[in-house]
Write a structure and sequence with these properties.
Length: 147
């Protein structure tokens, strides 16, 4: 799978100045539409917002370094198994992430950019859930062709 890193990077540059507001919007979006996920998270989301925002920035910064991406995502995926995150939860997270990015990206968002983020999220989810399942199957960020 080719990752369209230029589209991801350009749109993220438009979103980045909004900082932690992006993570706050994401959690509002996710938990309003999927209230059954609320109990997985701690009562106060402040720290969680900071961590998610830091993780997103790290992911985008490592797009051209698939081996870094792979090990970051495998660690994240294994930790998520202990948080109670299941493979079936990932599509809701992906939908809220895309809606959040679209909300903040303004003119930098178009259908090609949406497809690029969706493809990236596919690799992210498959790598995380593959590591959580303790297998090498599923996604492979280092096997993805970086365009
Ligand atoms: C793109 C996929 C995802 C990313 C980048 C992501 C990112 C993060 C990060 C950075 C943390 C902080 C703790 C750590 O680094 O281990 C975290 C915690 C957490 N995530 Fe995710 N996550 C993703 C998907 C999911 C999914 C699908 C769920 C399931 C609903 C989920 C639920 C949680 C929970 C419950 C915590 C712990 C919160 C707490 O300690 O209260 N995440 N996530």
């Amino acid at each position: 799978m080719a990752l369209e890193t230029a589209l991801v990077t350009r749109s993220f540059a438009a979103v980045e100045p909004y900082g932690i507001d992006v993570a706050a919007y994401f959690y509002d979006h996710l938990l309003t539409r999927n209230p059954e996920l609320r109990s997985l998270f701690a009562a106060h989301l402040d720290e969680q917002r900071d961590r998610l925002w830091a993780a997103l920035r790290t992911l985008v910064a490592n797009l051209e370094k698939p081996q870094n991406l792979q090990s970051i995502l495998e660690g994240l995926g294994r930790r998520h198994a202990s948080y109670g995150a299941l493979p079936e939860h990932y599509p809701a997270v992906g939908a809220s992430l895309l809606a959040t990015l679209e909300h903040f990206a303004g003119d930098s968002w178009d259908s090609a950019t949406a497809r690029a983020w969706s493809a990236l999220f596919g690799v992210v989810s498959a790598t995380m859930t593959g590591a959580a399942a303790g297998t090498s199957e599923g996604g492979s960020a280092s096997a993805a062709t970086v365009a």
